[in-house]
């Protein structure tokens, strides 16, 4: 009997219609379009309206996913939502999305691993497919970063946008799907990239609000150095482990945090620029949303059997790489 694997059988993304351009940011903080583009590669980001939560974007992505695959939300067994901007501390955003889309037969949970969240969620979802417990698992990567960004802090407000992407995992006995996974975490990175208040260790108070401690905090230089080293190294590691040469890789699908980090990862892998998925200029860093949004944007260029290396680095620290053999041709 053939070994059952988990394959991505559909992909869908969603970004809200409202744009925040570099020109807009020039009016808000001391920055310029040239400064932002030369250091990050970002030109614009999509922003979800105030009063709407991450579940709104996730639900749109899931509904589009079901329509594309031709299935009912009632067929979904499990919903995994990878996010650091859940609608609420509880209930889980996964539960809210299930209710919004009508996935009445699914159970679900949220997974928090910062910008590596989608990779962590993809690995977890794969295990439920391989075990035979579930036949249809949806993994959502979604974040409303505008909700936790301080738009008076020019070092961080230029980086982030809002968006969501979702994939459907289904069983396959063909030689494709999620082929290998390498994931890491290192809690000592907490001091460099975090949100200081709002959790059980530092609950909300007048003082934390006045000190702006409910916004994302990032110490740029150590985060950049760690991201370059770890994201590049783990991408090279998964290639070496599986005997993959640069010519065997059809696409590098990197987390969209910074063009310089993406370039360093591609160089470490020996992969040419024409094999690197890049859409950071349009969306900025959507955290857990970046990798599925890349797959969505490039779906028409993917062919069955293509070797993809998905790579990410996030706060915490978290990082990893996944080797995916693409399971279907363009529709």
CATH-defined superfamily of the largest domain = Thiolase/Chalcone synthase
Mean pLDDT: 97
Percentage beta strand: 15-25%
* The CATH class of the largest domain: Alpha Beta
Profile the largest sheet.
Answer: 5 strands, mixed
Give the H and E element order: EEHHEHEHEHEHEEEHEHEHHHEE
Number of domains: 2
Radius of gyration over C-alpha positions, nearest whole angstrom: 19 Å
CATH topology of the largest domain: Peroxisomal Thiolase, Chain A, domain 1
Rough shape?
Answer: globular
Poorly predicted sequence stretches spanning 5 or more consecutive residues: none
Distance between the termini: 30 Å
**What CATH architecture of the largest domain would you give?**
3-Layer(aba) Sandwich
What is the strand tally? 13
Describe the structure.
The protein is globular and about 60 Å long. The protein has 2 domains: 5-175, Peroxisomal Thiolase, Chain A, domain 1 (3-Layer(aba) Sandwich), CATH 3.40.47; 179-325, Peroxisomal Thiolase, Chain A, domain 1 (3-Layer(aba) Sandwich), CATH 3.40.47.10. The protein contains 11 helices and 13 strands. Helix 3 (54-69) packs across helix 4. With 331 residues, it is of the alpha/beta class. The relative contact order is 0.19. Strands 1-7-6-4-5 form a 5-stranded mixed β-sheet, sandwiched between helices. A hairpin with a 3-residue loop joins strand 12 (307-314) and strand 13. 32% of the residues lie in helices and 24% in strands.
């Amino acid at each position: 009997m053939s070994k059952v694997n988990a394959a991505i059988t559909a992909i869908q993304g969603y970004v809200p219609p409202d744009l925040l351009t570099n020109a807009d940011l020039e009016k808000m903080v001391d920055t310029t379009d040239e400064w932002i583009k030369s250091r990050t590669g970002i030109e614009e980001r999509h922003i979800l309206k105030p009063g709407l939560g991450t579940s709104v974007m996730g639900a749109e992505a899931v509904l589009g996913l079901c329509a594309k695959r031709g299935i009912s939300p009632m067929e979904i067994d499990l919903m995994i939502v990878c996010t650091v901007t859940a609608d609420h501390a509880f209930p889980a955003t996964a539960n809210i999305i299930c209710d919004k889309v009508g996935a009445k037969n699914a159970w679900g949970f949220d997974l928090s691993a910062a910008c590596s969240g989608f990779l962590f969620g993809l690995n977890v979802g794969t295990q439920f497919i391989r075990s035979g417990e579930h036949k249809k698992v949806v993994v959502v990567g979604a974040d409303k970063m505008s909700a936790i960004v301080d738009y008076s802090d020019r070092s961080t407000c230029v980086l982030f946008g809002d968006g969501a992407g979702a994939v459907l995992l289904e069983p396959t006995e063909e030689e494709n799907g999620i082929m290998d996974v390498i994931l890491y975490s290192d809690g000592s990175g907490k001091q460099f990239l975090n949100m200081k208040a709002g959790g059980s260790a530092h609950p909300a108070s007048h003082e934390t609000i006045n000190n702006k401690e409910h916004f994302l905090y990032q110490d740029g230089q150590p985060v950049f150095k760690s991201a370059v080293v770890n994201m590049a190294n783990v991408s090279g590691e998964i290639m070496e482990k599986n005997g993959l040469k640069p010519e065997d890789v059809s696409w590098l699908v990197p987390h969209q945090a910074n063009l310089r980090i993406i370039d360093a990862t591609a160089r470490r892998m020996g992969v040419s620029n024409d094999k690197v998925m890049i859409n950071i200029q349009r969306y900025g860093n959507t955290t857990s949303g970046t990798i599925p949004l890349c797959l969505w944007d490039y779906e028409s260029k993917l062919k069955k059997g293509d070797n993809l290396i998905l790579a990410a680095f996030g706060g915490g620290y978290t990082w990893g790489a996944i080797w995916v053999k693409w399971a279907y041709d363009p529709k």
